Amino acid sequence: MFSYCADPSVLDGWWWFSCFLTSATHLDFYRAFGAVIALLLVTAPAALAMGMAGAMMLRSQIRPLSMLGRFYVNIVRGVPDIVFFLFVPIALGQGIEYLLHLVNCPDWDQPVRQGNDFLVCRDAKMPPVDAPAWVRNLYAFAMAILAFALVFGAFVANTLHGAMQAVPHAQIETAESYGMTRKQAFRRIVLPQMWLVALPGLSNIWQILIKATPLLFLLGIQDVVYWARELGAQKTSLYSYPHPDWRMWYFSILLVFYLLLTWASERGFSWLTRRLSHGQATAEGERLRRATA
Amino acid sequence: MRTCWESFSGYALRALGRGYGERLLPRGTDISFCDQVALIGSGLIWNIYFAAVAIALGFFMATAVALARNSASPWLWRPAAAFIFTFRGSPLFIQFFFFYSAFVLLPRAGIEIPLGFTTLTLQTSALTTAQVGGLFVLILNTTAYSAELFYGALKSVPKGDLEAAEAYGMSGFTKFRRVVWPNMLRLAWPSYTNEAIFLTHSTTLVFLSAFPARQQSGEAFYYARYFVDQTFNPFVAYPLVAAFFVALTLAIVAIFGRINRRLNRHLPQERRAKFRFRPQYLR
Q1: Does residue B149 contact residue B136 with C-beta atoms inside 8 Å?
Q2: A23-77+150-292: CATH, from 1.10.3720.10, 3.20.19.10, 3.40.50.300, 3.40.50.150
Q3: Residue A21, CA distances (Å) to A14, A227, A270, B94 in order
Q4: Smallest Cα–Cα separation from B194: which of B84, B274, B140?
Q5: ∠B151-B152-B154 over CA atoms, to 5°?
Q6: At what angle do helices B135-155 and B33-70 cross, to 10 degrees?
Q7: A214 with B93: Cβ contact below 8 A
Q8: Residue A243 gets which letter from DSSP?
Q9: Taking a C-beta distance cutoff of 8 angstroms, is the pair B142, B54 a contact?
Q10: How far apart are CA A243 and CA B146, in angstroms?
Q11: What's the rounded Cα separation, in Å, for the pair B11 and B30?
Q12: Which of B83, B98, B244 to mutate to test the interface with A (most CBs of A within 10 A)?
């Protein structure tokens, strides 16, 4: 990165470190931390949306819909998560390729599964055969986000459903006696009040989501774990800054990063709980009211 | 193609090493459904080993850490709180990587500790294997999670019970052994059951991370991944491993349920703490 880094063999001490820590691969490593945050920021709303849909399904009066919701929530929660993380991207990828195969190549006469091969025609490959590397990376990343959203959506659905049940039923009855429809009562009475009840559960799920992000590595994405392994391993060649096995130090950086992330979000959620408790008929809300009065 | 019986006799114990059954794993188009059932089932041996040992040792360590966390002395509760925070606040996946890369730095010949009259040699090479090193990480991890549960339970031991114990003249260790500890276990047991379930589920991470599977002997999910890589078909091996884990979970619920009944045997039915399956996945 700096001009004096051109010849690593003459560097020593701080100069060596300043060059080593700004090498191109290290910049990729730093960007991977950003990718973790980006993944969290994209997945959280996606999982919340999935969870909201799931909770609405669980509440639904239409029987098949509520059964579908129960099936979704229970199957995801009952099976080890890691199985889902590896299953969903492959299964989804093959599913998409199969659909494209049916649409794009109707005159293909061989079966798709031949022995141990999954064969689709050239036009059905996803991402396309001639796609540049960044499209492939983005596709893999999108698949990962889908898998995360699907798994965490089930957790969120369960939490939100519980929170909706916790809103006093008498209030809904009152709303209906005022002439509100079911939808109106839901939007005006249940929805604003459920968040406070759901917050501890959501905070829990968020912490679990943070701790799930290193699993990206298993999906073949060049994430923080990949770079820590890569950069920490022993190097001997002169131009790659030779050093002994430093993986332990790299992983301790990851450990600290995740500890900071969980610590900060714990603080964030307790702040949010205080804010949402204002004016609520709960112990915390009462405490806040007394404090100001 | 092997018959089903041949698959079972060849692979049912394969997870223990090359010496047990077939030397090589089935490959490519040679893989039959029975192979997958037998091999994934044999991997379960290691899941049970990791979970059982980690829970058994972690239980006592967690009691100690919970007591330290609950103590009034800052020399005790601060380190305990830091330990709990470190292991609960970071992903288990990263913990595996960290400890593995730390263990490989230890000298291979072992560490010699001079004790004056004799020298103690610590065997460090075993720590780089999953069976010892991975287990070590799992024990520390479950200690932290269970200690947090036990600490919560310690704080909610009924005041009346403590006063009654003192009125009977109990103090110190007697009070702890006869009143505090049974109450703590009783209160923490439903959530401890969940902890045991999720520790069992997280044993799938051992071979997925840094620890190598020597002689291709791994746990159930390691083999499931192997089959998916070989057949490129996730619709057989993954549901199979999921089914095995559901069975394992039911077994844990049954065992822990019996213990729960025993811990609560002095209470009337409606006051007993009930187990609720509360998935709190991923550590």
Answers
A1: no
A2: 1.10.3720.10
A3: 10, 13, 36, 21
A4: B274
A5: 60
A6: 50
A7: yes
A8: B
A9: yes
A10: 39
A11: 14
A12: B98
* Encoded tokens for B101: 């890369």
- The ipTM is 0.84
Residue spans per domain, chain A: 23-77+150-292
d(CA A201, CA B206): 28
Confidence check: pLDDT of B112 > 60:
yes
Q: How confident is the model at residue B201 (pLDDT cuts 50, 70, 90)?
A: confident
Interface test with B, best of A255, A257, A263 (most B CBs within 10 A): A255
The residues that bridge with A243 in the sheet, in sequence order, are A235
pLDDT at B126: 80
Distances (CA, A) of A5 to A1, A101, A228, A239, A244: 7, 51, 22, 10, 20
Name the residue type at position B155.
K
Q: Rounded distance, CA A211 to CA B141, Å? A: 14
Distance between B91 CA and the closest CA of chain A, angstroms: 5
pLDDT digit string (tens) for A222-236?
Answer: 888 888 888 888 877
> What letters, b where the CB count within 10 A reaches 16 and e where it falls short, cover B226-253?
bbbebbebbebbbebbbebbeebbeebb
A80 contacts in B (CB within 8 Å)?
Answer: 201, 204, 221, 241-242, 245, 281
d(CA A32, CA A101): 34
Read off the pLDDT band of B65 (50, 70, 90). Answer: very high
* pLDDT at B280 exceeding the cut of 60: no
Query: What letters, b where the CB count within 10 A reaches 16 and e where it falls short, cover A34-52?
Result: ebbeebbeebbebbbebbe
Whether A198 and A280 have beta carbons less than 8 Å apart is answered as: no
Q: What angle do CA B243, B248, B249 make, to 5 degrees?
A: 95
Fold of B4-271: MetI-like fold (1.10.3720)
